[in-house]
Amino acid sequence: MENNAVFGLLFITMAGIFSGTFSTPFKFNKKWQWENNWLIWSFIALLIAPWVVAVFTIPHLTEVYTSESSNLLLVILFGLIWGVGAIMFGKGIDYLGISLSIPIMLGLINTVGTLMPILVNDPTYLLTLQGIKIMIGVAVIVVGIVLFSIAGSKKNPETTDGNKNVSKSIFIKGLIICILAGVFGPMINFAFVFGEPIQIKAIELGASPVFATNAIWSIVLSAGFTINLFYCVFLLKNTGSWKSYKNSSISYWLFAVLAGIIWYLSVMFYGMGCNFMGKLGASVGWATMQTIAIIAGNVAGLMTGEWKGANRNAMKFMFAGLFFLIVGVFIIAM
Prior knowledge:
The protein is an all-alpha fold. The chain is built from 13 helices and two strands. Strand 1 (159-161) and strand 2 (164-166) form a beta hairpin.
């Protein structure tokens, strides 16, 4: 059991690192717009990779789905809602950069992902000692998000996203997008939780328990892909940014593909880690992954110069916000 928990923690640690840094390759595609990167990312991360992995790791995949049609519809619904959150997540990074947007979005995702199942299933649980601890953790996370927001508004001379200056009005818009991403983002975890019967059926038909979650990811991510596809095509057509594909070097395509692979690995490793950890996976595993992703995202942002030129006051608020977010997620995990 202890060995399983250790393996689970290792997989979830890798998931957090990949989740927090997956968008870093986009920074090298300076001539592409957001939708150019995100469309390629969507094809790899949400469509191709999930189905390739599912086909190779889940025996009798079609039979798994046909025998669990009612649960399949619920997973698809969560996937469609999460698809909206995925767009917001990508746009949040585009507006505010990795190190500012990732902590805000993941802090909210962890908060909503923790509270919503309790409110739906048994709100009175929040009145117990464990429930009070959860609410304290949520409150600490909210403080961290506020501090990060203040840090973003205090960047000098303006909020920056890599080499791109962003006005305060765009910062506010980016902040709103990040908040929406934080609300819709946990739907992928709900799909994982409510899709458990699909995992069980996959195991019954010969799938390894470690890889059984791949039967869920292929469905939920494909549902999210449809939303992302339509939005990217809409932007490509209306802005004319589809022309950027014509004269782009192969490196642009490879960086976008790499981002997709990194992100999908974060989801796959999260599912594997949860299965190793058992009942603790969807709660402790989720909180742990978000904490590591926040740290990894900040390190990536700092290393790529997102806070270069920021005044000391803004940096103090940023590190204070990071501290509160990590402490809050740690309280919830405990």
